[in-house]
Amino acid sequence: MFSNLALGVYHPGEGLLHRLRARTKLLLMLWLVVYLTLANRHMWHFVPYHVALVLAGCAIRLSGVPPGVLARRMWLPLLPAAFGVVPALMFTVGRTLHAYGPWHVPYPTARLVLIAGLAIPAAYLALAKSSVGVRGSRWFRRARVPVGLLAVGEGVGLWLVWGERGSLAVGPVVVTYDGVWLLMALLVYFPVLFCLALLLTMTTTPVALIEGMSLLLSPLRRVGLPVDEFALMVLIALRFVPTLADEAEWLVRAQSARGADFASGGARERLGSLTALIVPLIQGTMRSASELAVALESRGYGSGSRRTLLHEGPLSREDYLALGAVLAVTIASLLP
Question: How many CA atoms lie within 13 A of 294 on its CB side?
Fold first, then answer.
């Protein structure tokens, strides 16, 4: 249930991205954010987007992470962006690129189409009453909400067009230049950045990542900023994501063994089952935080001494080559 968490889970490997220093990957990630932000300001200049996709593909290939593992961790956070594709393309105000329609549909034809569409909810109800095995399958339970929304939409549509005469005007659908460019940002900008951030955490241990962040932020110590404390907070946040996921998984298994059901029933029943996890999960979190505080105090954290680095050493030739290659390609792609 909790094995496909996105960030904070390290994937062991021997790929090139695993061998690069953490601060090299952090610098590249920061530069790519700036690069795509600059590219988004130059409308209809698609070369940077092509370069970003190629770089993301090369990063996946050089990371050694299986594409299937990466895809399972990417689809859920990117689902809201997928739902925004149609509104971004059709409802963005700006200079018109093309207008489609209006299409005139006779009201009798519209009523026939809506009545024919009711066959899908009817078939779903027939299957629900005819076979217990089909009713308990996963795909059948997942189709409950879409089929219900389809039935409600067709019922409202029939109520609106029933008894009307003439023809129904559908459209026009106006596609603007700004809408197409916003669509490019949704399809390239956010998926590429999320994929690269995911590869950063999957190819770098949390300790190495925080050591690299501390080295990059070390000049801020001169102005009195608590760089080490900030790095510790980020390390704890990243390190305890898989820990909390494992604890939640054990709680689900323990309560399932005692008769709790988290996989069947309606939304209200599932919500009621999940609320039973909140109290023990909070108790486990507070217990882990207390044990961590005792461990930090027993090891002398907060005494003011500087910490030694375990993973971050001098940059290698691979680090300099990666930095130089990415900078050269991206800067060249920004040129007109």
Answer: 6
What would the pLDDT profile of 258-311 be if each residue is shown by its tens digit?
776 666 655 566 666 677 777 888 888 888 888 888 887 787 766 555 667 777
In the prediction, which pLDDT does 142 show? 74
d(CA 79, CA 6): 13
Global pTM reads 0.71
| Percent of all residues in the chain with a pLDDT value above 90, rounded to a whole number | 12
Quick one: residue 304, left, alpha or beta (phi over 0 = left, psi -120 to 50 = alpha)?
left
Residue spans of the domains in the chain: they are: 1-92+177-204+313-336, 103-170, 206-310
The residue type found at 15 is G
Secondary structure E strands in 45-134: 96-100, 103-106
For residue 219, whether the previous peptide bond is cis, meaning omega lies within 30 degrees of 0, is no
Burial of 281 (0-12, 13-18, 19+ CB in 10 A): middle
| CB proximity list for 27: less than 8 A, separation 6 or greater | 216, 323
Average pLDDT, the chain: 81
Phi–psi pair at 253, nearest 5 degrees = -65, -40
**Distance from C-alpha of 61 to C-alpha of 67, rounded to nearest angstrom:** 9
CB 143 within 8 A of CB 124: yes
DSSP states of 199-233 as a string?
HHHHSS-HHHHHHHHHHHHGGGGGGT--HHHHHHH
Beta-carbon count within 10 A of 181 CB = 16
pLDDT of residue 136: 64
